């Protein structure tokens, strides 16, 4: 079994369909749970991609676009790396992106 789940697995779980549990049960031969249809209106958040899009497209202006990304990050949207209870993975990604950007700009 490949233990790495796809990034939007958090979306399925937040929408009410625990695919990770079902996959784990299937691997060990346990009875599968009854999976519910996902609740509509749950949104997947890809903050790094949203920030890049805001910087390039500026749909409502850079400040407005970045503000909407911040609001989404602080709301109950599903994300594969952001969790207000565990900011370590998001900080690691941010440091990595900043280092790459600094290295790209270095003479």
Plain-language structure description:
By secondary structure, the protein is mainly α. It has 2 domains: 1-42, no CATH class; 47-105, no CATH class. 54% of the residues lie in helices and 0% in strands. The protein contains 5 helices and no strands. The chain has helices at residues 9-14, 19-28, 47-57, 62-74, 88-105. The longest helix has 18 residues, at 88-105. The termini are far apart. The mean pLDDT is 81.
What descriptors fit this protein?
single chain; mainly alpha; 107 residues; 54% helix; 0% strand; globular; 5 helices
How is this structure best summarized?
The protein has five helices and no strands.
Indicate the percent of residues in helices.
40-55%
Would you identify the regions where 5 or more consecutive residues have pLDDT less than 50?
none
Order of helices and strands: HHHHH
Number of domains: 2
Number of strands: 0
Q: Between the first and last Cα atoms, what is the distance in angstroms?
A: 45 Å
What is the helix tally? 5
CA radius of gyration = 17 Å
Binned strand content: under 5%
Overall body shape: globular
Structural class: mainly alpha
Please tell me the overall pLDDT: 81
């Amino acid at each position: 079994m490949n233990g790495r789940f796809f990034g939007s697995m958090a979306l399925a779980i937040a929408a009410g369909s625990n695919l990770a549990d079902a996959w784990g049960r299937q691997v060990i031969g346990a009875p599968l749970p009854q999976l519910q249809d996902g609740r509509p209106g749950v949104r997947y958040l890809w903050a790094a991609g949203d920030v890049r899009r805001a910087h390039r497209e500026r749909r409502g202006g850079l400040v407005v676009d970045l503000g909407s990304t911040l609001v989404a990050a602080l709301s109950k949207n599903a994300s594969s790396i952001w969790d207000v209870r565990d900011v370590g993975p998001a900080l690691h990604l941010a440091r990595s992106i900043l280092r790459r950007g600094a290295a790209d700009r270095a003479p």
